[in-house]
Write a structure and sequence with these properties.
The chain has 3 domains: about 5-135 and about 305-320, Rossmann fold, CATH 3.40.50; about 140-300, Dihydrodipicolinate Reductase, domain 2, CATH 3.30.360; about 345-425, ACT domain (Alpha-Beta Plaits), CATH 3.30.70.260. The chain contains 14 helices and 18 strands. The protein has helices at about 15-25, 25-35, 65-70, 85-95, 105-125, 140-145, 160-175, 175-185, 195-200, 200-215, 235-240, 305-320, 360-370, 400-410, and strands at about 5-10, 35-45, 60, 75-80, 100-105, 125-130, 150-160, 225, 245-255, 260-270, 280-290, 295-300, 340, 345-355, 375-380, 390-395, 400, 425. The strands form 2 sheets. Strands 7, 8, 9, 10, 11, 12, 13, 14, 15, 16, 17 and 18 form a 12-stranded mixed sheet that branches. A 6-stranded parallel sheet has the order 3-2-1-4-5-6, sandwiched between helices. Helix 1 crosses helix 12.
């Protein structure tokens, strides 16, 4: 005999409608595979008149979220409205009413998750947030269960489809950032206000959750270094390609000497790197564990059905435990790691200097780099316009970020050498050969 579990959804937008569609259309399949009958009892939204392309049974829709939060028959509340408020209040009140909670709200969890998870722990209720990171890719379950026996050595993620789409178009077409962003907005890949996507904030929200799961650290959004893609130019992409690299907006977490790097920024990766091949709106997370080695998870990171699939997976997972033991989804304590400041990281770097075309310029720049313990692995200088400003591209061996910043500050003050501020991009992967 199947176990019945009642679900209420707050938010009937893109993800909410996808979740409802899956529950209604695939309910029999879910019951056959899991032995759990999931009843969609209520959906709350301010607009219940607009059609969403899914047939909702009579009496399910309401404009009052508390009609389902306070319903004693509802076991699981699914929050899909996004933002901080009133989503936070709805989630906390649902927990206080004895409900389990499922959410796709990475911004809320990354910035206020400690309070929410503490409330869940006090009430012995579960919170599912598979859909908060990488849409339809089950990376939360992978980290929480599949790789639970591993020390996680590093994580590299392309986990924002908007920025990946923009960089893909810029790479393929040589188009400028602003033009591609406008296209992305017209096609619905970017919001009217794309700040969270293009400035790396959305990616940092997701990295915060992955890092807490992987390393047992508190939710640390404020400690994630964040840098967006607005400064990437077709020239940088072309030079990267000439050197055998592609530029991606990466979420990076790695353990170095018992300290964790948490950073989001444009990154040059070798073209033959697996994650370099992830294009358009697709997402990928590359994880290295001490036991399993290298693994990669790839798929759609957004959209009604992929994200709805992740939401329903959490509903099924929690439904299987309703009335059973409570499972804590994030560790409450730290495994003893500290988080590195960005100035303490060590990696390779790409420089694009705008220099005056005259003798001795390269030697002066290389001299400054040398005094800051930065060695050069490759140089590109094609254009010659004697006495005018031309690009000088330099790729370095591994160096400390603090040394890089000090060198750039010194070089940018060489008025007889440089004509504009220096551009640099961090480089991951194998050393240039």
């Amino acid at each position: 005999m199947s176990k019945a579990v009642n679900v209420g959804i707050i938010g009937f937008g893109t993800v909410g409608s996808g979740t409802a569609r899956i529950l209604l259309q695939n309910g029999a399949l879910i019951e056959r595979r899991t032995g759990i009958k999931i009843n969609l009892k209520k959906i709350a939204d301010l607009d219940i008149d607009r059609t969403r392309g899914v047939a909702i049974p009579q009496g399910v829709l309401t404009t009052d979220a508390y009609e389902l939060i306070n319903d004693p028959e509802i076991d699981i509340v699914v929050e899909l409205i996004g933002g901080i408020e009133p989503a936070k209040r709805f989630m906390l009140d649902a927990l206080k009413q004895g409900k389990h909670v499922v959410t796709a709200n990475k911004a809320l969890l990354a910035t206020h998750g400690t309070e929410i998870f503490e409330e869940a722990q006090a009430r012995q209720k579960n919170i599912g947030f598979e859909a908060a990171v990488a849409g339809g890719i089950p990376i939360i379950r992978v980290m929480r269960e599949g790789l639970a026996a591993n020390n996680i050595m590093s994580i590299y993620g392309i986990i924002n489809g908007t920025s990946n789409y923009i960089l893909t178009r810029m790479t393929r077409e040589g188009a400028p950032f602003d033009a591609v962003l406008q296209d992305a907005q017209r096609l619905g890949y970017a919001e009217a206000d794309p700040t969270f996507d293009i400035e790396g904030i959305d990616t940092a929200h997701k990295l915060t959750l992955l890092a807490s799961l992987s390393y047992g650290i508190p939710l640390s959004f404020d400690k994630v270094y964040k840098e967006g893609i607005t400064g990437i130019t077709p020239e940088d992409i072309a030079y990267a390609s000439e050197l055998g690299y592609k530029i991606k907006l990466l979420a990076i977490a790695k353990v170095i000497d018992s300290a964790i790097e948490l950073r989001v920024h444009p990154t040059m990766l070798p073209e033959d790197n697996l994650i370099s091949k992830v294009d358009d709106v697709l997402n990928a997370v590359y994880v290295v564990g001490d036991a399993v080695g290298e693994t990669m998870y790839y798929g759609r990171g957004a959209g009604d059905m992929p994200t709805g699939s992740a939401v329903v997976s959490d509903i099924i997972d929690i439904a299987g435990s309703v009335g059973c033991r409570y499972r804590q989804f994030l560790q409450a304590g730290s495994d003893g790691y500290k988080i590195k400041d960005i100035s303490d990281i060590e990696t390779m770097y790409y420089f694009r200097f705008t220099v005056l075309d005259k003798p001795g310029v390269l030697s002066k720049i290389s001299g400054v780099l040398g005094t800051h313990n930065i060695s050069i692995s490759a140089v590109i200088q094609k254009e010659r316009r004697e006495g005018e400003a031309v690009p000088l591209v330099v790729l370095t061996h591994r160096a400390k970020e603090r040394d890089i910043l000090n060198a750039v500050k010194e070089i940018d003050q060489l008025q007889q050498v440089v004509a504009a501020k220096t551009k640099f991009i961090r480089v991951e992967g194998k050393e240039y050969n």
